[in-house]
Write a structure and sequence with these properties.
21 helices, 6-stranded antiparallel beta sheet, about 900 residues, SpoIIE family protein phosphatase, alpha+beta, GAF
Length: about 900
Amino acid sequence: MAEPGVETRTRSSVITARAAASFDPVGRSVATARAFVRDTLQGWGYGDVVDDAVVLTSELVTNAVVHAGTTADVLCLRTEHGVRVEVSDHYPEREIPLQGGQNFGSPDRENGRGLLLCAALASRWGVEYTPTHKQVWFQLDLPERAVGTRTAGPVLPVDLLPSTEDRVRVAVAQIDPVGSITSWNEDAEHLFGYSPEQVMGKPLGDLAAWPHTPGTGTGLAEALQLSRWEGSYGVRGEDGRVVPVYASHLRVRDTHGIPSTVCLLVRDHERAVLQTPLRPPVADPGSENHATDPFEVFIGSPAPDDLDGLLQRTVERARDMLDGDSAFLLLATDDETELEVRATTGLPSARQRFARVPVEAGAGRYGSARMPAVHEDLAAVPGAVPLLEGTGMRSVVTVPLKVEGRLTGSLGVAAEGSGRYSNEEALRLQFAADRIALAVESARLGELERLRRGSLSFLVEASDLLAGTLDRDQTLALMAQMTVPTLATWCAVYTIADQTSEPALSYVLHEDEDRIDGLKALLSSIDPPDPVPTPGARVWHAPADAAHRAALATSMEELGQGHPGLLSSGIGTTLATAAAVGGETVVLPLFARNRVIGMLTLGKPSDDHFRQEILELAEDLSRRAALALDNARLYSERMAISRSLQRSLLPPGMPQIPGVEVEVIYRAAGEGNEVGGDFYDVFPIRDGVYGFAIGDVCGTGPEAAAVTGLARHALRLLAREGFGGPAVLERLNAAILDEGDRSRFLTLLYGEMWPQEDGSAILKVVCAGHPLPLRLRQDGTVEPAADPQPLLGVMEDLELYEQTVTLDPGDVLLCVTDGITERREGTRMLGDDGLAEVLTTCTGLTAGAVAARILRAVERFAVEPASDDMAILAMRLPEPVKGD
């Protein structure tokens, strides 16, 4: 039933939209419910009734979750004439005060105050019961105004009106659902320098310099999806400079139902043109209650996890509360020794954001941020408020933010005139700061927790990427790509080869690829930072100073050429580069294995600063990157040594044998190996006599390569001493056995060749446990050219013999290792027969073509890469040319 004397629920107005949410019976749900109603109504464009709706919702939800102790269900209904809010709880038997009775009329009673506010503020309201819940609803009608009017303010003197440049330009851009620009007006072209043709179809994110912290805050993509959004960010102009703007986004849909976002943008100092006017706070008719705290209503209720939004709204409301020209909010570090600028309004925010100032700024009571302070004229106490130096502000009031006696931040309001503030304003601001301090600290701790979780995820991914390569150049590229744009706008890596070398610029990266060359040229023109081993980031001023000098010289050159305002491509590039490195630059040492191996340099544009959490994350990354870079250096050095040693095991070159074509193909198994257990050699023994060998040491890798070197050098030495084939191999067998535990089995085909004047060649061959050499005749027949004999490295007493073979013109002698014949695909193996079959197809081919066809057949025999070393030695006696 409806409460007697109260207008019953009506649905005469057409409902055009609805939003609902449920809130648990805990104290923090009241603030969450206020945020839900405020954001919903602002998204619908009902800013005129937001404050009243928030106050009423706060009281009714408090009754449900605190006093009744049940879940609160909040339903917002938009109608053509206003908004209806319904708050339901699950405690229907709770007392409802009667209209006109003592309970209802007494503001001192704890219960009933919500209904009293409904009666005072709502156009209509009522109470309804069901068997399971009780519902209180109120209707707020929009004020009736003539067409074209919305809000009005008092007539102000001209000197109090907001100042603008020559004329106010309002850039209008329309953004499609995927974030691309579909409309761009003339004022937008004037403010940012881009013609419509240059930006149409491009994502707005390519132009926006959105304040971004990994893992926190609302991004541009999210802001464009909201029904309505207002706030500050930057837009990169065509000249590379970031233009601070104040923007108002409104999401609309066309006749086909397709949504888009209309963005209105003005210069940040002209924000009064777009900023939604504020209504005065509603006085609390009852006793003190957090739900109707004047400053809390004044500040508003951003999302609980949106610290940046909360801080920005706080400084804007504080500025308006004291009628100031600017305001700022700083958060204290954990040790309370420094304050970090986190939000400003009316100040050059790009230059001040994340800048740090000491808590104890000077001597005396007013030099400390721990106490409220009023400065009537900053000109009389220079340096008292470092943040305001050079801004034109004369008077300022600052108050601390404290939670449980601990300094958590500082809030200040400043004006251009002197003597604007007194102790009375300081008390008002301190009262407001006390009310907002806990919410700020809670949001800050939440942001730190999210940032830490994001940092851990970032570092894990970075470690995986850095561990995935041992290539020095790739490691340098990964270091830069992981920092840009997540941690910095640009990055440069300096490396130090050894303790006697100077730092060398090794890699440069900028988020705008068009600026990389200019940035590299600028950094190359200045001395590198000193390789100081002290851990942590230190500020490096040289790039910003060099950029400033370059920009100044370029401007003078421009004026000297008589083209003021007209930038050539070279001048434009110089100024763009200067803007790109105009912010804070920090250097972190790359320290590994007790020495500095380089420096990681991070930079910000346009006088921006790094926040401490980002620097700590960058320091963690630099330690991991330094170790990865040093590992890559060590790996490169060892690979260079390994390759040098392995090359010494290969023949220096193939000799030219008169009347004989010789071709060798060699493939060592294993990554980075140039020489394995297989080896070959062709060398002159004496005039008219040449030796050739092909062998296979048991196993692969460096151990097998060591026996390879022993065998190849011993063969040459013994053959040139005049020993015959069997004697050479017997002495080599003894040398292998002398290696003891390091000895390896060795199969070897050794032969000596005597080319003849008639184009034939006589060969003497010994085949010690090796795959037999194959002879290809001109008629296509293939036959073994030797008999098998015992391998080397097993028995001490070997009795080997040599066999004589005569090759005729056109014949081919093919020698291979078992990596060729034992090529497998499942249970299939190429084998000696398969090799002979391939060789029969090589009649008439040159030695090089024969070796290539054999290798191609082996590779195609199986899909998997070869797991054993492979060597092919092909020797062919060419046929005499007809007519000779």
